[in-house]
Amino acid sequence: MTNRPGPNDNWKVDWKVYVGGEDRSSVMHPYLLSIGVSLKDGGSADTCRLSFNDGSGEIKLPEPGDSIEIVVKDRIIFSGTSDEPKFTLNKNGGSVLSMSGSGVDMTGPVKKPLSFHMDDASLGDVMRKAAELSGIRNMRIDPAYDKIRRDYWLVNRQSLMSLGDRFARELAGTFKFAGNEAVLAKRGTGLAPSGILMPTVLAEYGKNLISVDVTPVSLRRVFSSTKVIWFDQKTGQHREVEEQGEGDAGEVDAVNVSRLLAASEDQAREQASARNRESSQNRGSGRITIDLDPDAQPEGLCMLKGVRVGVDGSYRIGQVEHSGSPSSGSTTQLSVRQPQDGAGKDTRPTR
């Protein structure tokens, strides 16, 4: 087994780790092998992971449920609770103790089934009540979603986690936890629920760009418009609404017909508009890796510069992976979609 390591002087970026509100960075520093943070765009919680050289066996096992904050360049990039420890031992690699953290406290009541109903209320009213019953201090909701009103809402043995995921799928939005807060945001707008513009990160060839692997044009999952069927209670008949897609879907003739039956015309238009936004984001995809940038966030933009015509431009950020180790340095990997600002278009004349 590997003996206790000496001080590690090879970290190029200042990572700080707070556990239970205390700065434990200097204590961890001699043992830390790698650190990583995964920021998701909904569907699952943000996570973090830390690996330590445990050759001497003197590191105390982390307690599940402790609060964790990870800070890079004075920016908090992760806030959550410790999850589960993991220990590995092999003859060549020595002893490694790892700990993980999650943006959702799985020991809390967020997965508790809820049952209630509300009359003539907004989606924001429903989500705030569900958050209060689940012990979440702050429920942030996109203003467009907060205004959605219905005559009757039923929450039948659904947890806040499943309820948020349900509305996110229905409205093509993002639902996620961050510490003691929850967020239901509109996807593809570049705005936070507070209305503040999300940051744009630069990926420039010859400077901070490490690698690019993108498909700047893909029309496989793009539609010209979306149709949704809804039930008219006054006439007892099924009707349909059709919403036209984004302007740059003009070269596509296919119509996206939703399988979901809406309860009203307003709900049908909400679903059609959401599906069109989702279609617009599917015009391209890929991954971009840059030097560590704590400003990179899901739903923000990445400006790719200096690569080539048709690839340069802006891309919507999906998931973000921050990682660091003494051997490989610190990097940020972005999953991207929705090319714009020239990405996916080469208007030069053919030679």
Structure commentary:
The chain has 351 residues and is mainly beta. It has 4 domains: 15-101, Baseplate protein-like domain - beta roll fold (Phage tail proteins - horseshoe like beta roll fold, Roll); 109-186, Phage tail protein beta-alpha-beta fold (3-Layer(bab) Sandwich); 200-218 and 283-340, Roll (Phage tail proteins - horseshoe like beta roll fold); 225-281, no CATH class. Helices cover 14% and strands 46% of the residues. The protein contains 5 helices and 21 strands. The protein has helices at residues 25-28, 123-133, 143-146, 160-171, 265-281, and strands spanning 15-19, 22-23, 32-39, 47-53, 67-72, 75-90, 94-102, 114-122, 138-141, 149-158, 173-178, 181-186, 200-204, 209-215, 225-232, 237-244, 255-262, 285-291, 301-305, 313-325, 329-340. Strands 1, 2, 3, 4, 5, 6, 7, 13, 14, 18, 19, 20 and 21 form a 13-stranded mixed β-sheet that branches. Strands 9-12-11 form a 3-stranded mixed β-sheet. The protein has a 3-stranded mixed β-sheet with strand order 16-15-17, covered by helices on one side. The N and C termini lie far apart (63 Å). Mean pLDDT is 82; it is low at 1-9.
